[in-house]
Each structure stands twice: as structure tokens, then as C-alpha cells.
Amino acid sequence: MPIKIATDLPARAALENENIFVITEECAVRQDIRPLEIAIVNLMPMKIATETQLLRLLGNTPLQVNITLLRTAAHLSKHTPLQHLERFYKTFAEIRHMNFDGLIVTGAPVEHLPFETVVYWQELLEIITYADEHAYSTLYLCWAAQAALYHLYGVPKHDLPAKISGIFRHSVLCPGCALFRGFDDEFLAPHSRHTEVRAEDIRDIPELRVIAQSNEAGIAVVESANHAQVFMTGHLEYDRDTLNAEYRRDLQKGLQPSVPKHYYPNDNTNNVPLMSWRAHAHLFYSNWLNYYVYQETPFNLNSTKTCGRPACD
């Protein structure tokens, strides 16, 4: 089944070129089916690239998905054309009366700042609080995962001595979890961050559990017991070239970045990076949509949200 997007969204051409099944608004209204309503709070500066990455994964399932793109009102992106934001994005104030089947909040390049000093921090807190009442499952990525863990459970973030960047091997700690259905015992995933959350800060919180981690990169995925919240510290959505672009950008800035680990063949930055995480990325998002969203939501989204979902099969 397709993902439903605006006819003139720039991501459409890229997705169709990759044989991702998309459907225009005009075609979708002729189908007698209720699509999943998924909102994406896009905090990344290069919003069009992030849209394409996430839509690629959300569009590769048997479910029809209707996407609402959200941006913060407190900060206007300098790297995305204003006409794109005005055409395709809504602000939280415009949708706060609505319910969604699922919600995704992306990372943001603000790790060096204390949470409370981020310009849109108060707006993000409203969104996190709203998500618990108006979305059946919320997926927080990278910095957003750290921010939500801090706000909801008091889990601190810790500065790292050096940036974690590269492709890292992870162990699945909960093979029975529906999020990892069909996964191998180990999987690869990109990380790109200067801070981390630690297992010892989560261990004594009964509502949370760590379900995937890396010996090199640390915690990868945390979930709440009722599946209402999923926190991913890495970037399964990244493209082949994303880490390369970040590395080249930091070089041009004179930051002397380390070469991303396990990324370039033979650690030679002139080599084309291997794409080694795509299959598990598609499977993770498909599992989230199916087991944590689709299987839990009522046909009428205005029904009262229910909790108490089982943590494992």
C-alpha cells in the first residue's frame, strides 16, 4: 500500500525513482480505506533530505499512510526555503486539536546546548506532552530521544569525549519484542552525536527498558512498557551519503573531525561508503507502524486513547 503525500512534495520524485509506492492526494480520496495518520516533527535543518529519508521507510509497508509535516514556530529554518515550509508544513498550534495514530520527532544539531536553552524547548515540551494523549506511539530520534527521556523520566544526557560517528553493530536484547520481529541477533545502524544516555540512568525506571545496544556506541533503542514511546539514539533513516556529507562539512569548517568508524571501505575516505543498514531500517519502521501503531489504533481516531498494551509477545 502507498504513502499519501502532496502531489508537488519534492520527495515524491526521489521516492518514485526508487520504486517506493506513493499516492497523490487526488487518488487517495477515491480509496475506501482509512490511512494511518502519522505526524513528523522535523527539527533537522535540511528538512527536505530528512523528509525523503523518513518517507522512504514509512512508504515501504502494506499500509496506507497519511503524513502531516510539522515544524516549530519558535525557530525558522535557514536551510529550507520559506515557500517549502509554508506549502508543506504546519505548526503545532495548527494541529494540537487533532489525534494521530503515530508521531515521529527527529533529532536536531543542538546537542551542545543545555536542553532548557534551546530556542524551541518550551514548544517541544508541549509536543511531547501532547503526544502522550493524542498519538498511540511516538518515535523519538537521536537528540529528540534524549530530550524526551529527560523531560518524561528525568534521564540526563552526558557529553562524550569525542563525537560518535559511523556504522556500529548492535545486539537485540529483547528478541521477543515486536519492534525486532524478523531481525537478526545483531544489526548495523548509523550514529552521529556528541552526547549519550546511559543504561545506569535507565535501569531503575520501571516504565522503561533498553532493548538494543552497541558495545561501541552504547544504548540504541529504549521503549516504554506500553509501547507508547520509543527512543532511538541512532539514525536508521540515514542515506548512504549522510555521514560522508557531515564529515566533509565539518572538514570545511576546520573542526578536524574523526573519520566515521566502519563506514568507508578500508577507512579510505575516497571510497564510496557501503550501505549496510537499509534492510533493518525498513524492517524496523515497518514493525513500528504495524505492531505499535496499526494494531493498536481504533478506526475512529477521536476515540479515547487506550493504554496497557503488552510489552512483548
Automatic annotation (TrEMBL):
Sites marked Important for acyl-CoA specificity: 111
Annotated CDD domains: GATase1_HTS
Binding residues for substrate: 163, 192, 249
Site feature: Important for substrate specificity: 192
Entry keywords, A to Z: Acyltransferase, Amino-acid biosynthesis, Cytoplasm, Methionine biosynthesis, Transferase
Pathway(s) annotated for this protein in UniProt: Amino-acid biosynthesis; L-methionine biosynthesis via de novo pathway; O-acetyl-L-homoserine from L-homoserine: step 1/1
GO molecular function annotation: homoserine O-acetyltransferase activity; homoserine O-succinyltransferase activity
EC number, UniProt record: 2.3.1.31
Active-site residues (renumbered): 142 (acyl-thioester intermediate), 235 (proton acceptor), 237
Reaction equations catalysed: L-homoserine + acetyl-CoA = O-acetyl-L-homoserine + CoA
GO biological process: L-methionine biosynthetic process from homoserine via O-succinyl-L-homoserine and cystathionine
EC category: transferase
Subcellular location: Cytoplasm
Major subcellular site: cytoplasm
A GO cellular component annotation in the UniProt record: cytoplasm
Reported function: Transfers an acetyl group from acetyl-CoA to L-homoserine, forming acetyl-L-homoserine.
Family to which the UniProt record says this protein belongs: Belongs to the MetA family.
Protein name according to UniProt: Homoserine O-acetyltransferase
Organism expressing this protein natively: Candidatus Desulfovibrio kirbyi
Lineage: Bacteria, Pseudomonadati, Thermodesulfobacteriota, Desulfovibrionia, Desulfovibrionales
Gene (name only): metA
